[in-house]
Design brief:
The chain is about 40% helix and about 20% strand. The chain is α+β, with helices and mostly antiparallel strands. The protein has two domains: about 200 residues, Cytochrome Bc1 Complex, Chain A, domain 1; about 190 residues, Metalloenzyme, LuxS/M16 peptidase-like (Cytochrome Bc1 Complex, Chain A, domain 1), CATH 3.30.830.
């Protein structure tokens, strides 16, 4: 298998290329180092809104043109905004990839931000947020993040606060676009059936003429150290109670992140695994019928974020009951460690889940884009090797270092009866 090649154009654009000739397909990505992490109060949600505006067309590629061309070629395209980044991609037959490369080069500099389109999209995004609010766990997640991060940009939802979505202007969006959509703040990634030298030459032709500029000074504020446990209670109409317990976690490039990934597999089962019934928290909470389900996630982020465990309670069981069992399992692990059998199962499950999530060229390109965003272009390539190098002692060390009460944020979603609408007299 060919390795990833890493290049930097004179204008600052990072280029990551990986040949994969298993199918005549190429996945093309543009990743920008700007996400909700980089949004000050008053402009929350601006990165996501700019992403929407990038689909409104340019003079060269009017709205709807790429939809038709990519659909006709049997391809797919999309974009998404995360806490740390905004990413755009197209996956197409190899002989049709040129239009995607041309279009992304064009909209890096020529997006129009028509005022009428901007106002139309404001309505769409506010509706998107209001739709998310129909899910009770949205309020729990928003409350937990706001409690966990009082200074850092991770404190707000990616979609932004509704008050900001109502007050931001077209000029705010355009200035955000112009400041962050430049070669020095971006990476072009291709995975698929191409010749590396030919692909690099085409990238230089299309992107090398985009003017160079300094990488933007990204807005980011360091979160002060947490000095004690924090708790929130959210009450929302519904029938189901939820408990979420979060612990401070390191940045993805920290050596402890992968150790926590294995610890997570021991506690909750590996993300993406089809069966987590052997995990400690499933045995303690679901098998005993305290919970209908339990899951956890450790997100790879630029800055320290959270390791979160979410418990869906069965009717008649209480969050306090579930919390006592959950914390008891954590304390047992911290006292006794894990067996070699548990370690091997956790590592193998995690490795298999990661391999499953990287089968297609689109998924491989995504992880290369994510590696660029994290600041280590090799993060994806050596993932499995680092995972399999974690020891039982490593798991015990990070459990004792990170799963402690002073670094914990606990949230409870308590269901209440929906209030009846009052009819005016």
């Amino acid at each position: 298998m060919l390795q990833v090649t890493h290049h930097t154009l004179p204008n600052g654009l990072t280029v990551l290329l990986k040949e994969a000739h298993s199918a005549p397909v190429i996945s093309w990505w543009l990743a920008y180092r700007v996400g909700s992490r980089n949004e000050p109060t008053g402009k929350t949600g601006i990165s996501h809104w700019v992403e929407h505006m990038m689909f409104k067309g340019t003079e060269q590629f009017p709205a709807g043109m790429l939809d038709r061309e990519i659909d006709r070629a049997g391809g797919q395209w999309n974009a998404f905004t995360s806490m740390d980044a905004t990413k755009y991609f197209e996956t197409l037959p190899a002989d049709k990839i040129a239009i995607a490369m041309q279009a992304e080069a064009d909209r890096m500099v020529n997006a129009q931000f028509n005022p009428d389109e901007t106002e139309s999209e404001r309505t769409v995004i506010i509706s998107e947020r209001q739709g998310a609010e129909n899910q009770p766990t949205f309020w729990l997640q928003e409350g937990l993040r706001g409690s966990a991060f009082r200074v850092h940009g991770y404190h707000h939802e990616i979609i932004g606060d509704e008050t900001d979505l109502r007050t931001m202007t077209r000029d705010d969006l355009y200035e955000h676009y112009r400041a962050h959509y430049c070669p020095a703040n971006a990476a072009a990634i291709a995975v698929g059936a191409f010749d590396t030298e030919d692909m690099l030459a085409e990238i230089e032709r299309l992107y090398g003429t985009i003017p160079a500029s300094s990488a933007p000074d990204l807005f980011a504020r360091q979160e002060p150290a947490q000095t004690g446990e924090r708790r929130i209670v959210v009450e929302r109409p519904g029938k189901t109670a939820f408990l979420e317990v979060c612990y401070r976690a390191p940045a993805a490039t920290h050596e402890d992140w992968m150790k926590l990934k294995v610890l997570d597999a021991v506690l909750s089962g590996s993300s993406g695994a089809s069966d987590n019934k052997t995990s400690r928290l499933y045995q303690a909470l679901v098998k005993t019928e305290i919970a209908a389900g339990v899951g956890a996630w450790l997100t790879p982020t630029i800055d320290p974020y959270l390791y979160s465990i979410l418990v869906t309670l069965r009717e008649g069981r209480t969050p306090a009951e579930a919390e006592a069992v959950l914390l008891g399992e954590i304390e047992r692990l911290k006292a006794d460690g894990i067996s070699e059998e548990e370690l091997n199962r956790a590592r193998k499950q995690s490795k298999a889940a990661f391999a499953y999530s990287t089968e297609s060229v689109t998924e491989q390109a995504y992880w290369l884009a994510q590696s660029f965003i994290l600041g280590d272009v090799n993060w994806f390539d050596n993932y499995a090797e680092r995972l399999m190098g974690v020891t039982a002692a490593d798991v015990l060390d990070v459990a004792r270092a990170y799963l402690v009460s002073r670094q914990r944020v606990v949230g409870v979603l308590q269901p209440i009866e929906a209030e009846e609408e009052q009819t005016p007299a």
